[in-house]
Design brief:
The chain is α/β, with parallel strands linked by helices. It has a single domain, classed as TIM Barrel, CATH 3.20.20.70. Helix content is 26%, strand content 22%. It has six helices and nine strands. Strands 3-1-2-4-5-6-7-8-9 form a nine-stranded mixed sheet, covered by helices on one side. The protein is globular and about 50 Å long. The two termini are 22 Å apart. The relative contact order is 0.15.
Length: 220
């Protein structure tokens, strides 16, 4: 697979692994979207990635020794065939006990992706990429999966409520995450909006790693 980076960090966002847990992050290279707020621009271009065999990736994961693995990008599902083979081979290794999370941007439907959970973004108006969204991609999610809305302003929030209602008509048990864009929307404001609309089953998703490493630096 084309790998942008692989490193040890913490689980900074909400998924089915406790936030703050130690985790290995496998960031794949290449993305089909260019969101206005992208915080991993270096991973957008597949040419910035290094081709790594599964064995090389396994060796690095073993070296870090963490109990969980987050696969993100870029957009991991651009390499979906390779990713499925990776996961199948992964399950035959001594790393089997690790939980796998895949983050995806909502533009590609996941096929036969058997992981602990999927976190799928729905790109709202401020992203500049909403035209790439297909609700059919969200209808395949299971009760273990998450839909994430990255919110910049009230327009985004109102649109998220519309999309949430459409998804809930088809999938009743997906967990919805609301994440404020750093330096654009204060979490207190987003919390107020959520409280006013009694979004009791939704989660305010703060990026814990950005509080620890505010300038984007990560552990070496």
């Amino acid at each position: 697979m084309k790998v942008c980076s692989i490193y040890s960090s913490i689980n900074g966002e909400v998924n089915n692994i406790p936030q703050g847990s130690l985790i290995t992050i496998l960031r794949l290279a290449g993305c089909n979207l260019k969101c206005t707020y992208c915080d991993s621009v270096q991973s957008q271009n597949a040419k910035n990635g290094k081709e790594m065999s599964n064995e090389e990736i396994f060796e690095k994961i073993t070296e870090f020794g963490n109990s969980n693995l987050l696969i993100t990008g870029g957009e991991p599902l651009l390499q979906q065939d390779e990713l499925i083979c990776f996961i199948e081979e992964y399950e035959t290794t001594e790393l089997l006990s690790q939980n796998i999370i895949v983050e995806t941007n909502g533009s590609i439907i996941p096929f036969d992706l058997e992981v602990g959970s999927i976190v799928m973004d729905y790109k709202l108006p401020s992203s500049g990429m909403e035209q790439k969204m297909d609700l059919n991609n969200f209808y395949v999610l299971t009760d273990e999966d998450f839909v994430k809305f990255v919110v910049q302003d009230w327009v985004d929030f109102a649109r998220a409520l519309e999309i949430m209602e459409k998804i809930e008509e088809y999938k009743h048990h997906v967990t919805f995450l609301f994440s404020p864009i750093s330096n654009k929307l204060h979490p207190k404001v987003l919390h107020k909006w959520m409280k006013e609309r009694k979004l009791n089953d939704c989660i305010l998703n703060l990026q814990l790693h950005k509080y620890i490493w505010p300038k984007g630096e990560k552990e070496k």
